Amino acid sequence: MKNILIIAPHFKIEYTAKKVAARYNDVDVKLALLNQSIKIARLAEKEGVEAIISRGGTASIIENTVQSVPVIKMEVSPYDLINAVYTAKKYGSNIFIIGFQNIIEGVGLLRKILNVNIHIYYINDEHDGERYIKNLINSGEKIDVILGGTVAENLALKYNIPTVLLETSAVTVDSSIKEARRIIKSTRKEKQKTEQFKAILNYISEGVVSIDYTKRVITFNSAASKMLGIPIEKALGHPVDELIPNTMLPEVLNQTESELGQLFQIGKTQIVTNRVPVIINNKTIGAVETFQHITKIQEYEEKIRGKLLYKGNIAKYSFSEIIGESEALIKTKERAKMYAGTDSTVLIVGESGVGKEMFAQAIHLESRRKKGPFVAVNCTAISQNLLESELFGYDEGAFTGAKKAGKAGLFTEAHGGTIFLDEVEDIDIELQGKLLRVIQEREVRPVGSNRVIPIDIRIIAATNKNLLIEVENGKFRRDLYYRLDVLRLKVPSLRDRGKDDIKLLSSYFEDKISSRYNKKSVKISNDALDKLQHYHWPGNIRELENIIESLVVLNDSVITGEDVEKIIDEKLEGKNSECEENNSDHTDDLEEVKKRHINKVLDECRGNRTLAASRLGISRTQLWRILNDK
């Protein structure tokens, strides 16, 4: 059986359909009128036909006969109608059109256009048509011609009345075949989605139950059947509260909020359930519930904890998550990707807040070690007294307060992966020698131990200082410097990346932070963005994120340029206050500190006050007032 079957109610339509069908390899044509089509349609359905095409009353009968096959009704085109009426006019101007509504609908419009007297009569079956003709004959009505489909033609011939067949053109047949093929394609896709959905439902370990607005079950997967002890066929179509005692799922139909992580008791079994309303066009049309044995969740938790031996051993950021389109950033990312293809040590340099750790994580995730751990160590955050034991680990009794079983060091934790040493310049000079040995020998000796543990790691270090100057000042070992500075990656500052990157990052942080605080109505105005783009960002991306967070928290709608100026001024005052507190012998007041900072920016801008004001995020008038003590 071919995919498409045309059931033609007249031999002329059959002839036209066969001519058109010859162009396709998936169309068959059969001749049958009205009830004669039932047997053919049922057999076709059984044999797997995917669409049936017919017209008039025959199409309506087929539609009521087959339930699983779409029926496409061939329409009569305006051209077919006009052509038939012109032919009928040859017999006289008193024309009677008899037929099923889906065939002759619209003929009435031709009365005025063609200046003919058209009488229209809709029928539901052959008997309707015969009664109508008998009544016309008995009334003495003059009947010049009867126009219609096969039924009208047969009746006209029976009563010796001239007749014209309302034919179906090849164009209409072709159009119907194309429509059938489109429907078949769509149906196949839908069936594929349904089967995939069923496979997913029956594969997942969570129980899934969904209901419609009448509270009847429309989805019930294998896991739900197993957990609840209810066969799938007995659950579908039944009210959910009759199947699951004390279920709260129907309550979700009356709300818009989800209920997540709820504990629920079924018999002696405790489960964790999530209940979510299904909302379309602001109307709740159903609800879905997923549930899992609490013991199963505990098993998963134990497995996860077993794999994550040390918090922070996972890299989260890939290169695609480093936001920006500036040439400086793109070149840096391209170089970093090349570095990722090696196992050599990388030294990442850049100002504070430029995102050095993000690059370290991205390099790790792009490397052959991506399935291994990523251990990040902030060498400033850990006390220098503890840093050695944290890095190398220690044996039992190595020092007072040591854990009884000892502790693996971060180098050991990073085995098979990458260790990231941030702010490496702050490592104590004595500890630098031990770090040098690890880099050279790829082995560690825990504190208080005579054991040597071989390690397979990749080292990435980062600094915001010039290490060569630190070497010249005797604060950093020269040999360690050259061991670290194998592949150098300089991350550009935010001001070097340009306005477009500031715009992208501002938009990203605005979305992220407004979602976190549920303040989605907060938007950055063009004026505010201009201020952000002209500020010099000494704290780089970290400072930008902090300022955006302040702006989002303090605003409920549009963030203005004035808002930006105010926040930046507050940040500058805070920074200058810290400088004063940290330098008790400093005699300059806050305004002098602010002036020095402004003069520094002016020097960078070669005395251009307009540019300096833009970088500082203040107006030119404000700059003049500060410099002139106004």
From TrEMBL:
InterPro entries given in the database record: AAA+_ATPase (IPR003593), AAA_lid_NorR (IPR058031), Homeodomain-like_sf (IPR009057), HTH_Fis (IPR002197), P-loop_NTPase (IPR027417), PAS (IPR000014), PAS-like_dom_sf (IPR035965), Sig_transdc_resp-reg_PrpR_N (IPR010524)
Zinc-finger keyword on record: no
Domain Sigma-54 factor interaction: 322-553
A Pfam family per the record: Sigma54_activat
GO molecular function, one term: sequence-specific DNA binding
Biological process, per Gene Ontology: regulation of DNA-templated transcription
Keyword Iron-sulfur: no
UniProt KW keywords: ATP-binding, DNA-binding, Nucleotide-binding, Transcription, Transcription regulation
TM annotation in the entry: none
Domain PAS: 193-267
SUPFAM superfamilies per record: Homeodomain-like, P-loop containing nucleoside triphosphate hydrolases, PrpR receptor domain-like, PYP-like sensor domain (PAS domain)
Protein name (Swiss-Prot/TrEMBL): Transcriptional regulatory protein ZraR
